[in-house]
Design brief:
The structure is a homodimer. In chain A, 45% of the residues lie in helices and 15% in strands. Chain A has helices at 3-8, 48-64, 81-89, 95-99, 136-151, 185-189, 193-197, 234-262, 264-278, 286-301, 310-319, 322-329, 335-353; strands spanning 26-35, 72-75, 106-109, 115-119, 125-132, 158-159, 163-164, 176-183, 205-208, 221-226. Chain A is globular and about 65 Å long. Chains A and B meet through helix 9 and helix 13 of A and helix 9 and helix 13 of B.
């Protein structure tokens, strides 16, 4: 695995869920630490000179930190938009960040894509660790280790009272945003989202669609994350998020078992049809594909569909997206051409994966 | 093949379309001759005595006619409702006829079910010949041969001026009703039914759903039949119906080829999805099954789906109906149980038939 592979295959560390905890329901765990350098303007205020200075400091820290020196550092004037979109689709950088082709915006990323440090996105550094399944503590530990190491070589903007200073006030304090991506077909199908999610905001958490803020819920994938970064320790944030995630996972498991028993034929029918459609369609939109993959995933988890690995299903979440499809065909495509290629990719992966 | 087989399998002659003309579009051809006996009241006016007399005359003719003596004669007090429904689902008797368990109502039918003579339905005799594909002339020839043979041994109600007298005045004259069952997905999908069917009534024909008068169009199956029995010879009726059927077949072929070229992906997608759903559903209603089978049949005809024979698809038109499903499980079922069994039957037949 190399950075080139990361850009040219469907692989990214979090799809490899085989031995990850709770991976039947939790797709991935992410911890993100926002950090800024003292005496350098925030990214949106950078000019040619301060940008250059900022990048020099970061490059210097990269080379001198044991944790990061083996990683790839890339600035967005060096790679085309398609490659930046690939990184977005792998959840390694934000869509906004990918829009820039600036020579001082970029990413510091390891080969497998479990660590991705955005450079000059909203903050000078956003250190992210993304792992498969429910592994908040491990993700936090790894992110903090890198953070500590970089801090040895960088002068962070830190205030004794407010903690880490950030470009957006909602990140001030720990600068930590922690999130889990959950697959909740049981809760959704049974119409219990309102009941189960109702207290989440009061607990300082928020739940959103697969692609973050403002995105709709597609394929019964949800992102649960903390909203409060101030007044809590990093340990509190991770502990709270993990507890709530565990409760939701528990609820989802109970509902799935109930559905399986009480609505056996309806569920088997729904799953069978989804599998039938997704392996036989010739044209398929991204949203429809995610919805059908959601049902297929439920079928795999309930043992109704055999021989398809959750690895394959996770990989497909990435592989069906536009930039990955474009990489495959090697050319820009119309929406319809993408829908056709998407159907081919899905058929290929699921047929290779096994049979029902 | 015996009468018992006819009652206990999905087979009936018209499903065996392998070498039948135009069988990609024409499912079956039927000719029905309405005949009544002189000096015996029409069936709805029969009482115990006249009914007995009528049956005796018919039995006598059956034994003495070369054409019919090898056939099975059954009265509806001798077979249970389920068996009568089986005959309905094979298109050998009418639904109304099956409702009766009278000892003078019944059917005279050959082992393969290409000839079915309803006894005391609306008329004393309704001599039917049903063949696969477009074979109106052959069906007419066979029906008339039986008719001639029976007439040697029966005194038909016939009037020089009006022709054969029938219970319902719309059948007076030749007493001939001829019909073809057509599968017209191209005309239907492309929204051209109105254009193509607009002159049919003026030509003395009518077009209806699969199960005859008053039934909706399901699965793009249509029944084209003559409405006028008086003032035309038998040859005219058969010639006219065959000509119009051929014109419709021609139109359907042209539209299919156009669809295949101009809407390649949409058509392949539609067919692929139909195949995927029908081979993976766990619960399926009769109407949905017919709609999906219609798409699968189109796929087979266009060469998009391989290795499924039209025999299998024709057999499924019969096999998915309630009485045939009940025969299979050997018990009465709820609608949902039937939907489950129907899905099993389809899966079994199509998986046995081949792969895509």
């Amino acid at each position: 695995m190399s950075f080139t592979d990361l850009l040219n295959t469907n692989f990214v560390h979090w799809v490899d869920s085989a031995r990850a905890p709770e991976s039947d329901i939790v797709i991935s765990s992410r911890v993100r630490l926002a950090r800024n350098l003292r005496r350098i303007p925030f990214p949106h205020m950078l000019d040619e000179n301060t940008g250059k200075k900022c990048v020099e400091d970061i490059k210097n820290a990269w080379k001198n930190s044991t944790e990061t020196r083996g990683m790839n550092i890339v600035f967005f004037n060096q790679i085309p938009l398609i490659d930046r979109q690939i990184l977005v689709e792998k959840h390694l950088i934000s869509p906004n960040h990918a829009q820039s082709d600036s020579n001082y915006r970029g990413v510091l990323v390891n080969d497998v894509g479990s660590i991705a440090i955005m450079i000059n996105e909203e903050d000078h550094l956003r250190i992210q660790c993304i792992l498969p399944g429910l592994q908040m503590e491990e993700a936090s530990k790894r992110a903090q280790k890198i953070d500590d190491d970089l801090e040895n070589n960088l002068d962070y903007a830190f205030n004794e009272k407010r903690g880490y200073l950030t470009s957006c006030p909602t990140n001030v304090g720990t600068g930590m945003r922690a999130s889990v991506m959950l697959h909740l077909p049981g809760i959704t199908i049974s119409g219990q989202t309102n009941r189960i999610f109702q207290n989440i905001n009061q607990l300082g958490m928020t739940i959103r669609g697969l692609y973050g803020e403002g995105t709709e819920i597609v394929g019964n994938f949800y992102q649960l994350s903390n909203q409060v970064t101030l007044g809590l320790t990093e340990e509190d944030i991770i502990y709270n998020l993990t507890s709530i995630a565990r409760q939701i996972v528990e609820q989802e498991r109970i509902i799935r078992e109930k559905l399986k028993v009480q609505m056996q034929y309806q569920i088997e029918d729904r799953i069978g049809r989804a599998y039938g459609i997704i392996t036989n369609a010739k044209v398929i939109t991204s949203n429809e594909a995610l919805s059908l993959l959601s049902d297929v995933r439920l079928g795999v988890n309930l043992g109704i569909i055999k021989d398809i690995k959750s690895f394959t299903l996770n990989e497909l979440i990435v592989a069906i997206r536009p930039a990955h499809l474009q990489k495959r065909t090697g050319k820009e495509m119309t929406a319809v051409e993408r829908d056709i290629t998407r159907a081919e990719v899905i058929k290929e992966k699921l047929n290779a994966a096994g049979s029902k």
